[in-house]
Amino acid sequence: MEELRQLEAVAVVCTKCQLAATRTQVVFGVGDPEADLMFVGEAPGMNEDRQGEPFVGAAGQLLNRLLSEIGRNREDVYIANVIKCRPPGNRDPLPDEIDCCKGYLRSQISLIDPNVLVTLGNFASKLLLRTETGITRLRGRRYPWWQGRLLIPTFHPAAALRSQQKLIPEMQKDFELIREALAVPRQRPVVIPPQPAQMDLFA
Description:
Blueprint: H1 2-11, E1 30-31, E2 37-41, H2 46-51, H3 58-69, E3 78-81, H4 95-112, E4 116-120, H5 122-129, H6 135-138, E5 143-144, E6 150-154, H7 157-162, H8 168-182, H9 196-200
Parallel strand pairs: 2-3, 2-4, 4-6
Antiparallel strand pairs: 1-3, 5-6
């Protein structure tokens, strides 16, 4: 998709925040640009910063495994992060870094136009659902979201690995919700043109 490639070309030279000085490269996103399922994580880690692709380490292997359990391959989906550059030492993203970067994610969602959006962990879930509620309380449900999409929050794969795999069964339940949600026809609202609040997504 040409518009997505153009957006990536802008993102890879972005200097809007301080992370531009410490990153190895921008980690824009990867996958099928016409996917009906999109995942949004937090930020690139060390491996992602080196390879330029989200979820390529152990967390990525777990994500691939969970996808395979619902009959999906990594190539079938689109994967991105809230912020596109690795924070030093894998620290949490700062509010100003999220503010600088969320426009890229907003455009990615609009261009890819997935039916189901899955947020991985606290940062993505709180941003897209506009809430301060933590992921433990948010997960396990499907949320009606922007323009008829369904949003499903689940734990970040890295957090599941740190839990000595205690959270993996909960993630497997969430992935069953994803499987079910993908079988539900999307109810697109007839609003032409979209209202400003709808266009805003998560401002």
